[in-house]
Protein 1
Amino acid sequence: AQSVAQPEDQVNVAEGNPLTVKCTYSVSGNPYLFWYVQYPNRGLQFLLKYITGDNLVKGSYGFEAEFNKSQTSFHLKKPSALVSDSALYFCAGANTGNQFYFGTGTSLTVIP
Amino acid sequence: KAGVTQTPRYLIKTRGQQVTLSCSPISGHRSVSWYQQTPGQGLQFLFEYFSETQRNKGNFPGRFSGRQFSNSRSEMNVSTLELGDSALYLCASRTQDSLGYEQYFGPGTRLTVT
């Protein structure tokens, strides 16, 4: 079965420290992977995607993600966290059936 | 370019009623997907429409249905509402018939069933 997992419901990090939000996938074939962010009472906003090519993908607001095929992971990272990064983050994968699979979300809190 | 719009933004219904939600995709986007978001379940895929045809369907009962019009606007209908249908319903659109194109989400419709 196709799926995306986010093993941490909650991540806390101090402002200025690096942050990592974890994601693992189980998608057949070559995976298409995405990260989205959701602020309170808003829809999801696209951050970045991996389709093919370089394993390190750079996206909006200074975020980046590293595709690791051997570990089937696509962790979201940022070198220096901001309080304004506090939000709900979703990892998603897509397969050849044109269907997207979302993780359950990770709530990130950046502590001033 | 205008983003994905959803109407209404908030809705309160009682059990047994039916409801119709509307989604207008970004201009030029032909794929529209619907998701149900609840605190405990995350985002659950309902269905996807592409060029007026349902292309994918999630694991929801037949009370949940949808359609897409020739201008790519989509509607979702839920009949015989249950308390458990209370959720944020998100619509997302994307361009091209390709996996490489990310989805863009609307702000959602918050449905409360009492």
Protein 2
Amino acid sequence: NAGVTQTPKFQVLKTGQSMTLQCAQDMNHNSMYWYRQDPGMGLRLIYYSASEGTTDKGEVPNGYNVSRLNKREFSLRLESAAPSQTSVYFCASSGAGIPYEQYFGPGTRLTVT
Amino acid sequence: AQRVTQPEKLLSVFKGAPVELKCNYSYSGSPELFWYVQYSRQRLQLLLRHISRESIKGFTADLNKGETSFHLKKPFAQEEDSAMYYCALYGYQKVTFGTGTKLQVIP
């Protein structure tokens, strides 16, 4: 099993450009999450999806949108990138049996200039 | 609202010295608490959870409800313990992470 995969690994955007970060998991998990990791701020939840067909805002949702395409895939979209969105983005998933044990992807390092 | 506080951004210890990474939480219900670790160039992974009362890689963590703490401890630090450590709390269908503590073990 690949676990949680993310694409791309690195991305540089100019202010105002848009892009979608892709995440997929092959563990048949119900819940999926998007976090951003910034120095001194730890991991902050952007959006999460408790099950297929549902999404909810986390701590820092502004400037982002998400799509739970199916049970496997959960994408994060930046419609108009801003320098404040420069960060490392992590996708995670968790199973129904143990909803609090999260499995993380390798991360996407995004720079917005 | 739930909150996790890790007061130290960086903790430097010598190899063989004891380690204690502090974590305090705020939560109105009965908490589910965890420690995650991120080694250099690796993804975050679960280290241990309080309900298991387990010891992983020599680390233990005890939940103290009176002090609302879940400190991570290891009696003798090893160089391979150098990593970023995150305390996390599960509640209200989501996990809240602390800001993390970077542990640096000096040879």
